[in-house]
Amino acid sequence: MKKNEEIIAYKVFFKGLKNNLDGINYEIGKEYQTTSDLQYMKSGFHMCKNPEDCFRFIRPVETDVDLALVRGFGKTYGFDAGYKSYDDTLGYIYITEKMEILKVLTREEILDLAIKMSPISLKTFLDLYPITPEESDYLKDNYIYQDVSNVFGNSIRTASDLIDRYQKTCQKKGKSK
């Protein structure tokens, strides 16, 4: 897909809104434009439709990150990114000619997005985004899809089981916050 359109999506940065491709520290509310041809993983502004997909590019389990809500506009490419995603589809990514950072999401706002994710999206989120025991309790208490047995079979029956399992995995790896 190639067209001029405006999209609202998510973009992950290293802490301080530093971009992994160009090393620039970006600012909220400022518009940016690339002068290069748009190329996947090389130029243009990359952003994802789903927040959990962003964490495949800069992993919060490995470094401190900022997750931002961004507006992409001008020349825009949208496509499957070429990696198998959590629901056997390819993750959807946009590359745009222009970008504005609308806001940096707080941990609370990120968790509020997580409580609305499908069970499989939540699994990906939990695998990539380290959470505290208190945040784990918040997810268990507020997660919308409480019965996840149809998705994961007999080994995981409830959202609480899912969250506990991935929280323990992150703690064993020393990745929980």
Explain the overall architecture.
With 177 residues, this protein is of the alpha+beta class. The protein has 2 domains: 2-105, ADP-ribosylation domain (ADP-ribosylation fold, Alpha-Beta Barrel), CATH 3.20.170; 108-172, no CATH class. It is 28% helix and 30% strand. It contains 6 helices and 6 strands, in the order ββββαββααααα. The chain has helices at residues 51-54, 107-114, 119-128, 133-142, 149-152, 159-172, and strands at residues 2-4, 7-14, 31-33, 45-48, 65-84, 90-104. Strands 1, 2, 3, 4, 5 and 6 form a 6-stranded antiparallel beta sheet that branches. The chain starts with a strand and ends in a 5-residue tail after the last helix. The model is unreliable at 85-89 (pLDDT under 50).
Briefly say what this structure is.
This protein has 6 helices and 6 strands; from the N terminus they run ββββαββααααα.
CATH superfamily of the largest domain: ADP-ribosylation domain
> Number of helix segments?
6
Cα Rg: 17 Å
Low-confidence stretches: 85-89
Mean pLDDT: 82
Q: What would the CATH topology of the largest domain be?
A: ADP-ribosylation fold
- Name the CATH class of the largest domain: Alpha Beta
What is the level-2 CATH architecture name of the largest domain? Alpha-Beta Barrel
Largest sheet: 6 strands, antiparallel
Q: What structural class do helix, strand and pairing data support?
A: alpha+beta
Strand content: 25-35%
- First CA to last CA: what distance? 38 Å
Number of E strands: 6
